[in-house]
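Usage

Read records sequentially. Each one opens with the input sequence:
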Amino acid sequence: MIFVYAVYSLLYSKKRSKVFNSKQFTSIILFFLIFGYAFILSVFSNYGSLGFNGIHITVVPFLLYIALAIYPKKINLKSILLNFLLVGGFVMLIGFYFYFSKPLIYGHLLVYYRALTDDPVYAAQYSRMVSIILSPNIFATFAGVFVIVLIYLLSITKRKVVVIFSLIFAILGIVALILSMSRGAWVAATISIIYIIIRQFKFKSIKTLLIPIIIIAGILLINDTNYFQLIEKRFDSLLDLSNSSSYGRIQIWIDALSRGNRIIYGYGLGVGGINLIHFPELSQLLGIEVLDGYYIKVLVEVGIIGFIIWALHMMLIWPRVYKDYDKNLIVLSQTVLIFYLIQSIGSNVLDFIVVAPLLWIILGITARKEKAFDVLII
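and closes with the structure output:
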């Protein structure tokens, strides 16, 4: 609906001639070229319904990027960010309530949704914060973006109320991120936070010292023996690339990539995606399971040449500083994109409708040809 309204508004705007710069336009063309090919391939392979599912989770969220980039009127970025933080704070608080009142809730949800017997031993293996999102990796992605936006606010404001608010909720967000036990999100958040500190604070401001203080305070808040042991165990397995440590991911990747010549031109849109779980017979026929790793999934969908084109699309979509652009906003969008790119190594975060739009909204606002958003003053 947002995309349709943006296109409609643009048709009656005087700014039709200047919408994208050449690199942004090229990246969009490449995106539709790649996944359009993948959809046609899935249709001709007789699993078009899976291809339509692939459009839903891969293509539709990307329309937000285009919609916000072409929308001819000003966008209140301040309102968007503050509303996201309001919703994010609520999600964090609910997560803490569930986790500390029912710490094994994720394990019991796994038992329930996988139609397993209510085995307390199985459930007890999983103590991960999920809040209302019901997936630790996706919740961790939400929490990571939440923390990045808060650090961004710390870098652009001098108002004490905003600083205090940002500090308190950044601590909550980091603790929530840790308790999600999502190793990929830990790495992605660490690199992203370092990046935004270097770009925004440049180590010249005392505010830079707030970041390690937040992290230390977050760890101290959860320094209960049981929780600390769980965290330590997950941390120790960060560099463990064995199949058991990766929950079978590595072997699933190897199996998917060793299917002969078809990997050269791909299997079609949706193959390897999260919706493949609803097509068990097709999964068995193709010998491919749900691939927890976005890069491997894209490679399986569009093949080697298609993957190279997709990689080029991602390079072109990288936010750049142009004349009259808000450089602070550019850094924010770059940091969020870095977080998603790293998190995507072992998770399909760009295929989850809960968190994928967060990236495309921020990138879409940043991609605007002109400075057509309200100046963010907080």
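Summary fields computed downstream for this record:
- DSSP finds 17 helices and no strands in the chain.
- Confidence is low (pLDDT under 50) at residues 372-378.
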